[in-house]
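P.,

For your records, the input lines for the assembly:
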Amino acid sequence: MKEPLFGRTLSQLRALVEELGEPTFVAAQLADWLYKKGASDFEGMHNLPKRLRQSLGEGFEIGRREPERVSLSSDGTKKYLYPTAHARFVETAFIPEGERATLCLSTQVGCKMGCLFCMTGKQGFQGQLTSGEILSQYRSLPEFERITNIVYMGMGEPLDNLEAVLSSLEILTSDWGFALSPRRITVSTVGIIPAMRSFLERTECHLAVSLHSPFDEERRRLMPVQNVYPLAEVLAALRESPIARRRRISFEYIMFDGVNDTPRHAKELLRILSGLRCRINLIRFHPIPGTPLQSSPDATMVRFEQQLKGSGVMTTIRASRGQDIMAACGLLSTGALVGPSGEVDY
Amino acid sequence: MKKTAAAGTTARSIAVERIAAESLPLFEARVTENIEVAPGVYLLKYPRTEDFVPGQVVGVTVDRRIVPRFYSIASGTDEPFIDLLYDVLPEGELTPLLSRLGSGDLLLVSHATGGFVDTADPAWWIATGTGIAPFVSMAKSGLAGAKRLVHGSRTLAGFHFRKYFTNLLADRYICCSSQESAEGVFAGRLTEWLSMQSLPADQRYLLCGSTRMVVDVRDLLIGKGVPFAQVLAEIYF
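C-alpha cells returned:
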C-alpha cells in the first residue's frame, strides 16, 4: 500500500527526500507541488529529478481525499462528505456570507468527549484523522479559492488529535504551505489543558473554548471532560499563558432554555472571566434526537448578551447556518455510515 | 539535515516535557505489582502516599516525554496501595510500555484529581470493561451500601472484580455480556437489560466507560424519564 504525502510538513518531506538520496532543497519544491500547485500526480512535477519522481511513484501517492457527496442548505451553506481511512467518513461545512467564506473542518471520526448536546458525540469515537485528511477538507473543496476563514469546529475534539492538528496548522500557515494568516484560523477545544498549552505555544492561531456553563456541577452534566479538566483550571492555564495582543481567545456558549441562560449565569460568567481579554459567542442550540435540552428564546439570548456587553465583555450571538442540512453547530455526524452495531464496544 | 531533524525532535520532546510538567506535576513511584488479570488487561499497584476521594483519577506515564494519561483509582481510601486497572492498546504510546513494568520499576504519577465522585446515597453504578475501576474504589471505601451495579462486557473475561462484587452486592450486581453466555449473566448488552427495568428518576446514575456506552446509556436514561442532572458520566479519552 502506498503512503500518502499530502499532509506532510516540510521537515517530514526533507527527511523523506534525504532518505531517497536527494538534496534536501528538493523538499521545498515537493511542498510547492503538493500545497501551492495542487498536483494530483508525481509525473507532472517537472522540476523534480526524474529518478525521484519514479521513486515517489513506486512507494507513495499524493493521497489527497476528494469529497463524495454535498448537501446544499437554503441559506447557501454546503455540507461535504469526505472519506477517511478504514471506509469511514467525516463532514465539513462551507459557510459563505458576503465576502467572507468560512470552512468548518473535522479532526476526528466521531468524538470521545460525550457532550450531552452534540450529535457528533452520539456516534462515539471511530478514529483520528491524519494531517492529510484534515487538509483534504480544505484543498479539495470545490470552493477552495473562496475560503477566507477556517475554524476547527467540525466533528471531533481538535486537541484530542494534537499532533495531526498542529501539523495541519503548520502547513496552512507556512510560506511553503498554503501561507494563510493564523489570524484567519480558529481552533476550538473543550479544554484539554496540556494540549491547549501546546497549541498556544506552538501556533499563533485563535482559540475558542467551549464553556456552556460557568458552574462546575452544571458543566459536569453537560460536558464529562469537566471531571478531569475543570473550567477553573482551564481558565488558570489561559491566564498563565503569554497570549499575543492580536491573538483572540473566545468562549463558546450554547444557550439552553432554563438551564444556563439566567442572569445568575451571566453574572458568574463575568466573574470567572474577569481580567481575561476575550470575547463570548452565544450560540443557539440546535436540537438533536432524544435531547432533554431546548434552545433559549431569542429574547432571553438578547438579554443575556446585553448583560455581558453592559459589563464590557465583547459578546455576539452567532447566526445559525445550515440547520436544514444538519450542518449547523453540533449537528455534524456520520454515525449513520458507521454500521448498525459494528462499532458498539460493549 | 539529519541533525536538524533530530534537533527538532529533541526540542519537541523538551517542549512536551515542560508543558506536561506545568499542566500536571508528576512524582516518582515504584511499582509493587503489575499483573495481567484478563487478556490485555492489567492491574498495577504502587504505594499510596496521599489521600484521595474514591472515583478520582491519577495521571500516569513511564517517561516525561510521553504525555501522561489518566486512570481511575481502583483501590479503597484506607488501602496501602493505589491500584490502577488498564487495557493495553497495542497501537498506544503508553500502555504497551506500562504493561512491561515489573516490581521495583519506576512510574511517574500525579496527585489524585477529578470530580467523578459519589456519596452514600442510593445510586446506580453503570460500567463497561475497565470502567469498573472507580466503582471498585467507591465500594472498597464503603459507598456500596445503597448501590446497584450494572457491568457490561463483550466477553466473560471482561467482568473484572466479579467475585468481589458478587459477594458484596449479591443480586444488586448485574453482569451483561453481549457475546458470551454463562449462568447468572444477562445475555445481551447492558442497554438491553436497562431498557427492561423501572429506573427511579430521583436517584443518581454514575456511568463510566467508552463514549459510546456513555451516550447510549445516557440517552436511554433520559428516554425513561431520568433528568439529565441525575446522570454523571466519566469517559475514557
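Two observations worth noting. Chain A has a mean pLDDT of 95. The longest strand of chain A covers residues 88-97.

Regards
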